[in-house]
Amino acid sequence: MVKRCLGLIASVAVTLLGLLLVTFLIGRVVPIDPVLAIVGDRANADTYSRLRMELGLDLPLWRQFLRYLAAVAQGDLGQSVLTSRPVLEDVLRVFPATLELATVAVVIGAALGVPAGVLAATHRGSLADHAIRLLGLVGHSVPIFWLGLMGLLLFYAKLDWVPGPGRVDIVYEGLVEARTGILTLDALLAGETDVFWNALHHLALPSVILGLYSVAYIARMTRSFMLDQLRQEYITTARVKGLSEARVVWRHALGNIAVPLITVIALSYAHLLEGSVLTETVFAWPGLGQYITNSLLSADMNAVLGGTLVVGSVFIGLNLLSDLLYRLLDPRAR
């Protein structure tokens, strides 16, 4: 057990080191001068040289990387040019909005994707199976920003079923203290039901649009897992024993794919956390994706790299969690 724990820690450490190295190299190869982003293109040569030395950009690349490692180990992701605040502080402020959006989206994906995959597998070749497979193809093929724009055009501009872009109407901004950063939860904790329902209405359309990708992926993987299980001998034995088809499918077959399905849902969640950039941009959602996009357009590389590092760390953490759950729930993996 000690050897396994040490091996797991070493694996995570190497992965994080690789993520830090890639993030560092991206910041050095992009055609953006961080010094000019801070001082502007009208600064004199002395100011430019002094700031370049202060930032350590005159040092060899390996020494710059060591300084970067030391700073990240202390929680220092640099200063944002756009907001003039520490990047870590900005990320902690905007990440809960992304977490809220991605969490609702993955709940939608799991709630719709798993039954759809089971239905497609148990009715293979039927109209329902073809429709679900077509939904999966559309979910992976259609650009999410186009779906977002069409959703706003139809449900907001034409039908007026949902509120416009943003996280809450302007009249409700600032009424709720940000305890967790998740607005719907903070509104409930503060007893502000009007803010809660308004925030929930704003959350509905972007979470459904973002959840379509998750539905497509989870339904496709569930269908594949179920088809494999339904061909197994224990399914035939259960049917011969007289068990109902619903019990065979939902209790035995689905129970045996629960462990790999947890991994699929966890990976889908990670992809939603990192892939919400376009959705947040279209819906003016003040999350990490929009923060990274605005920082990139403003040549604020500290913020871009800091946000990228946080997303990568979350992805590693969710992969690790799914692996631990796999070993915990499946005796064969142990």
Automatic annotation (TrEMBL):
GO cellular component: plasma membrane
Molecular-function GO terms, alphabetical: dipeptide transmembrane transporter activity
Domain ABC transmembrane type-1 per the UniProt entry, residue ranges: 95-326
PROSITE patterns, sorted: ABC_TM1
Segments traversing the membrane: 101-122, 134-157, 199-219, 253-272, 303-326
Keywords: Cell membrane, Membrane, Transmembrane, Transmembrane helix, Transport
Pfam families in UniProt: BPD_transp_1, BPD_transp_1_N
InterPro entries linked: BPD_transp_1_N, MetI-like, MetI-like_sf
Membrane topology listed for this record: Multi-pass membrane protein
UniProt subcellular location: Cell membrane
Family: Belongs to the binding-protein-dependent transport system permease family.
Name of protein: ABC transporter permease
Organism: Azospirillum cavernae
